[in-house]
Amino acid sequence: MELRDNLKYTRSDEWVRRDDEETATIGITDYAQGELGEIVFIELPAVGESIAPGVAFGVVESVKAVAEITSPIGGEVIEANTPLTDNPATVNDSPFDEGWMIKIKIADAAPFDELMDAEAYREYRS
């Protein structure tokens, strides 16, 4: 299971990276993509949509299961990784780089403090 020290993690297997004071990038973890297996479909929100912490903003479907993607923080979607809709397996190959899901303008940064760092997530998943 690959983890990155510059990310924060959720118990529902999403990651978030604070890009700067106002924006963040969100995706699913390497653990999540491994558990799902071959991803065949991804549904993402449109630019301009508001998302809330702990609320689903998209769907990932694999040959094994369908899973909702839950936002660790709230804000407005400023970019969706739309190439994933044509090539969802990118998430299997590169969940942290090319496989990111959305970028948001952060509404409230406070939830970052409640998220797990890489070490805590590793312990949670082991």
Summarize the structure.
The chain is an alpha+beta fold.
Describe the fold and architecture.
The protein has 126 residues and is of the alpha+beta class. It has one domain: OB fold (Dihydrolipoamide Acetyltransferase, E2P). A six-stranded antiparallel β-sheet has the order 1-2-3-9-8-5. A three-stranded antiparallel β-sheet has the order 4-6-7.
Report helical residue fraction.
Answer: 10-25%
How many separate domains? 1
Architecture, CATH level 2?
Beta Barrel
Beta-strand residue fraction: 25-35%
Largest sheet: 6 strands, antiparallel
- Let me know the average pLDDT: 96
Q: Give the helices and strands as they follow along the chain.
A: EEEHEEEEEHHEH
Briefly note the CATH topology name.
OB fold (Dihydrolipoamide Acetyltransferase, E2P)
User: What is the CATH homology-level superfamily?
Assistant: RNA polymerase II/Efflux pump adaptor protein, barrel-sandwich hybrid domain
Taking Cα atoms only, what radius of gyration do you get, to the nearest Å? 13 Å
| Helical run tally | 4
Low-confidence stretches: none
Strand pairing plus helix content: what structural class?
A: alpha+beta
Shape: globular
Question: How many strand elements?
Answer: 9
Question: Could you give the topology of this structure?
Answer:
Blueprint: E1 8-9, E2 14-18, E3 23-28, H1 30-36, E4 39-43, E5 50-51, E6 56-62, E7 66-70, E8 75-80, H2 83-86, H3 90-93, E9 102-106, H4 118-125
Antiparallel strand pairs: 1-2, 2-3, 3-9, 4-6, 5-8, 6-7, 8-9
